[in-house]
Fold this sequence. Notes:
Elements: H1 3-36, H2 38-45, H3 53-69, H4 71-85, H5 87-105, H6 111-114, H7 117-147, H8 153-181, H9 184-191, H10 193-197, H11 199-211, H12 217-222, H13 230-266, H14 270-298, H15 300-323, H16 329-347, H17 350-355, H18 360-378, H19 382-393, H20 398-414, H21 422-425
Amino acid sequence: xxxxxxxxxxxxxxxxxxxxxxxxxxxxxxxxxxxxxxxxxxxxxxxxxxxxxxxxxxxxxxxxxxxxxxxxxxxxxxxxxxxxxxxxxxxxxxxxxxxxxxxxxxxxxxxxxxxxxxxxxxxxxxxxxxxxxxxxxxxxxxxxxxxxxxxxxxxxxxxxxxxxxxxxxxxxxxxxxxxxxxxxxxxxxxxxxxxxxxxxxxxxxxxxxxxxxxxxxxxxxxxxxxxxxxxxxxxxxxxxxxxxxxxxxxxxxxxxxxxxxxxxxxxxxxxxxxxxxxxxxxxxxxxxxxxxxxxxxxxxxxxxxxxxxxxxxxxxxxxxxxxxxxxxxxxxxxxxxxxxxxxxxxxxxxxxxxxxxxxxxxxxxxxxxxxxxxxxxxxxxxxxxxxxxxxxxxxxxxxxxxxxxxxxxxxxxxxxxxxxxxxxxxxxxxxxxx
Length: 434
């Protein structure tokens, strides 16, 4: 390969990283904003006259969960299309759908303006977001890892997870800024709409980048390869979902559900909850790319198992620390930052791990479905399960138990990963469960 060819491949690889990750950033920015403004959205869309705040918050998280359950549908629909016609055109389609649906939330009428129609309109747009998000992950990770140089799939794939952190941080930053410059009345009346409307210019920029994206050389070269038997693909999807369930549950518990938990269960202010969330996401962002790079050297198993075990061990002590009024805010800040960092150990190698489980012919569909199914159950339902269980039991330790149990269950699935680096450099193929 000549120097000019190498430079061209490097430029295309970097372009793939940016174009692949920018849609993911927008997706998680919106999901973060929805989570951070959950209490306000509950009051505006799910609280008819005489309704309780707790019931409204449960309904808000039910709408949140519904969007996640549309993700597997989107992963199957757009994934199959992406494996047939190519990664680029499908990624263009899903970013357009995501942008339009998110921006429309910013102009929806509230319950006071439209009555019972308001929550249904919001839920419909959330479903569209779920469909597009389901098609986003598989395509973005396929593009990143298929453009990756040999032995660098962990590093390239980690940028998908890194943009999750950036999106959540951007959402938290927007929420914190609005909470600072606007009064509580202004924020509740119209200020909450602004972060959703901001998606429109962000989405147009992402669309421009994706229109300039090349199709991956791997897809072009191997699009005629033999499709593996459906039974093998289904088994690999189930195994992949099991491997990332701890990442899904702990990630959403510590990075998204935390603000409403701190407010509703521990009496924190909106600003205090956002500061805690920003710190958790900073810790998350700090470890993702190093974890992906480390997994290229040591293998995916060692890094991801370490993260899952640390969550099992530390989740309950962390939450007890946050509940202790005698502990300084500085110590609490370090603790939530550390919680985010532990999740990053699973999120960094995760995309490459999933990508390596499937050959090119079914990669978009397979890894997208594994991710979407796991997130539908263990991320999308996190807020609903945690809020409802706390309401019924009165136990404020529920978030810690939820994250710890999910990670404990995912450890055996992670231990089926090869321990050596051979899987990192070998050609991906359908991985059999059991």
